[in-house]
Structures are given as C-alpha cells and as structure tokens.
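Supplementary Note 3. Input sequence used for the single-chain structure prediction.
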Amino acid sequence: MARFIVNIPKIVVALLLVAAIVNLLIGVFLRYVMVEVTDWLDVDPIRFTWVEEVGEMMLAWLTLIGAAIGVRERSHFTLHVLTHRFSPGTQSLIERGHHVLIAILGGIAAWYGWKLCLLNRTLATPGLEINLAVLYASCLVGGILLVIYALSMIVAPPPVDPDAVH
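The predicted structure, written as discrete structure tokens, is reproduced below.
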C-alpha cells in the first residue's frame, strides 16, 4: 500500500500525459478535419476553444508535479564543474544545501499557489467555466511535493554513484 502511495504522483503524471496527447489529437482533428466538413456541409462549426483550456491546465499540472518527481528521482540536469573535486563529505553538504534551496523554492511556490487559489476561486475559464483555482492548485500541489521530496533528499539521500553522469 505504501508503495502505491509513493507512486501516485508518477501515475498522475502518466495519466495527464496520455490525456494531453488525446486532447491534442482531438484539437487537431476538430481544427483540420471537422472545420472542413462543417464548411462543406454548410452547418454551424464545432466549437473547440475548450481544447486550449484543457491543454493549459494539463500542462501546468504536468510541469509542476513532474518537476517534483525529477527532484526525487535525481533526473534534473546538474553541472559538476567544481564539486567533483571536493571530498565526498563536502559534496554531500553541497547536495543537501542544493535541496534546501529547492525546498525553499517549493515552499514559496506552494504559498503563492495557495494565495492565487484564494484570489481566483470566484473566476472561471471562458470556455468550459472551470474554476481558475484548479489551475493555480497545480502550483500549490507541485510546491508541496517539491518541499516533501527535497526534504526527503536532505534527510535520507540516496547513495551517490561515482560513475553516474549527471
């Protein structure tokens, strides 16, 4: 059960990615096929402005949750110009300091995401009339995940592989 809970962000990102691809395909189909069909049949065109709204929401959620996953999986790009010359203890301190900064940034993102949710909770998107707090909640959730994952990397960092290329 605990393993499932740990994998929830990855599952959410995978589902969002599939949904974003389907959304994009629907948008292309409606724009380049159905517009021509409705013009040829001389009927009212199909509205597809909602595709952009859905895509924007999914992109925000994908980006912010994906960034947090990248911190936990240590898959973000890093450039080791000088740190490889330091002792393992110093490298560990630098790595932990790096994750402290990430946790601070995640906390700031979560705080302002919360404030944006409160500020925009009465507003809705023009096409689908989705509450804008849903969009800004991605910043809140992503920020909280960044804090949790960065703190976990400070408390219990994975072993450093000296042969790994970062």
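Residues 108 and 143 are 7 Å apart (CA to CA). DSSP finds five helices and no strands in the chain.
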